[in-house]
What we know:
Layout: H1 4-19, E1 30-35, H2 49-67, H3 69-76, E2 78-89, E3 98-108, E4 113-121, E5 124-137, E6 143-144, H4 146-152, H5 164-175
Antiparallel strand pairs: 1-3, 2-5, 3-4, 4-5, 5-6
Helix pairs in contact: 1-2
Amino acid sequence: MYPFLRLTKTIINGIHQNLKGNTLDITDTSEIKLIANINDIDNYLEMNNGRILTLFDLGRTDFAIRTGLGKKLLEKRWGLVVAGSTIQYRKRVRAFDKVTIKTHLKAFDERWFYIEQTMWANGKPCSHALLRTGVTNIKTGKVVETSEVMQTLGHGDLQMPLNDWVKAWADADKLRPFPTVEDEKI
């Protein structure tokens, strides 16, 4: 089940941080803290890999709220979409571990924002993800160009080109075949 209570807590905390003046610049790193609870653990007694990706959603939510993007999403009737991701798992997260999720904007091109996220348990890095994300127009479903989003956020001149490993991943992902109806043979 999706962690709606944690999502609500993340939204309230992000708004509260903004009201206290603890906003983030678009180039800053968001950090949220939580405890790995029993609902996060799988039959191997560690945090489920799918749950890690879901909890990364919360990190991106905090980042959006604290950078002002969340407010602009509501004003402009925009949404967020994940168009691709890659993740590495290195250390286990066990029940009741203290977890920190760090989120920051790594790069962007004309269409996509590349978000880097890490999960730390008890002060040690456990997983690392790179996500290709976009801002969408809710009415049309089309991706809004990053230049328009950055202009709306007051960062129209900011450039964050893809570094070598982000570019290599993005280029490799373009080569990946996506299944078609013709591929489905029964």
